[in-house]
Amino acid sequence: MKKVITYGTYDLLHHGHIRLLERAKALGDYLVVGVTSDDFDRARGKINVRQSFMERVEALRATGIADEIIAEEYEGQKIDDIRDRGIDIFAIGSDWQGKFDYLRPYCEVVYLERTAGVSSTELRSARGQVTIGVVGQGSVTDKFIAECGCVDGAEAKAPTPGQPFEKFADGVDALYIYSHPRDHYRQARHALEHGKHVLLELPFTLREEETRELFRLADDSGLVLMAGCKTAYATAYRRLVLLALGGMIGEVVSVDAVCTSLRPVDYSDAASMEREWSSLADWGPIAMLPAFQILGTGYRGKRIVTRRVCGYDEFARVSLVYPSACASAMAAKGVKSEGELVVSGTKGYIYVPAPWWKTDYFEVRFENPQENRRYFFQLDGEGIRYQILAFLRAIGNPRHAADSAGVSRDVCLALSRVMQDFTEGTDTTDITPAK
């Protein structure tokens, strides 16, 4: 039996893909098709893929052409696959002419002419642009607007000076909201009630019930409501969470994250203080994210410690106790510390150096240093463009929005619950020094 193998992303499967697969199949008796995984696409800088890995696999399987479908997950895998599966022919499109000649010592290499006049890029463009209105000001929104220019199908639009939110929201397809957290509920509710998809920066709201209501409204309207948190979409961060959940370091016993930055605050300017985010609202969601995504949201005890200046929390630490683990999250804009993440387990630990929230590198360390492993992943746009892509993918298929989301509903609700407790003084200890 003659075996043939080919590889591709197969995003928005089209006639050109199918013709190429049919011609590859005709070269032998058994066709193996390698589909690039989501992480591998990101690592190669290919971030405009609209469909998830499973959506692409299912579309390919439905054609009935492939005898076997595998995931391509790392550089150099082609040689391993050819050897392990006894492949006779490697087939690929002619636009790769010469690129894979290095495989000739292992099997025959055949370059197939592609079908002219059709491509996934053209199909993505044909679907039209999604105009995303950007609400809020500052470096984060500036970066978001810039990153939209790197993602096919996304067009960012900022309001004109003095333009009312309601009027601005009516003129776009979707909204990215990075306004003050106290405005999130009102603005997201208006957007959803008027048929707009929403990418809402964490924390969603300052009250758990308000967050729950926004999700209900999105469901009832068939709209996408997704968390905007660049860290949650970064490849390195997502991979370390999977490694922790997969048991690489044994049972996770502790998750400790620190997020701090010294930012000048004019406490005497009432207008300035009105616009200022609290330390917990600004850094807290990111600092608490690893605990909730690795240990879950079912903690049995919580303690918030805060230090304030003129009513503003310049420092906050959230401690969580689980049935068999614990976590701590430090968030501060008036206190400085090392911004690292440590996930401690019974067999080893994961260490992410500062600034861990936009890392492209982390280590898994064990008692025997020879077993230590280092992981490197490309980080384009600090993760912002990945969340834009996930948002567009969810808009394209709202029923699978949860699969694209970097932050689950349970975590969004848990973060709002902590913010509500902090605001109301529940489980909170104030260590502000006496005047």
Major sheet characteristics: 9 strands, mixed
Low-confidence stretches: 120-126
Note the quaternary state here.
single chain
Total strand count, please? 19
Structural class: alpha/beta
Total helices: the number is 16
User: What is the typical, i.e. mean, pLDDT?
Assistant: 89
Strand content: 25-35%
Compute the CA-based radius of gyration.
Answer: 24 Å
Helix percent reads 25-40%
Provide tags for this entry.
nine-stranded mixed beta sheet, five-stranded parallel beta sheet, 16 helices, globular, 25% strand, alpha/beta, 435 residues
Write the layout of secondary structure elements.
Layout: E1 3-8, H1 15-25, E2 30-36, H2 38-43, H3 53-63, E3 68-72, H4 77-85, E4 89-93, E5 108-112, H5 120-126, E6 130-135, H6 139-148, E7 154-157, H7 165-170, E8 174-177, H8 181-193, E9 197-201, H9 208-221, E10 225-228, H10 230-233, H11 235-245, E11 252-260, H12 270-275, H13 279-294, E12 301-309, E13 312-321, E14 326-332, E15 341-345, E16 348-352, E17 361-366, E18 373-376, H14 384-396, H15 401-404, H16 409-424, E19 428-430
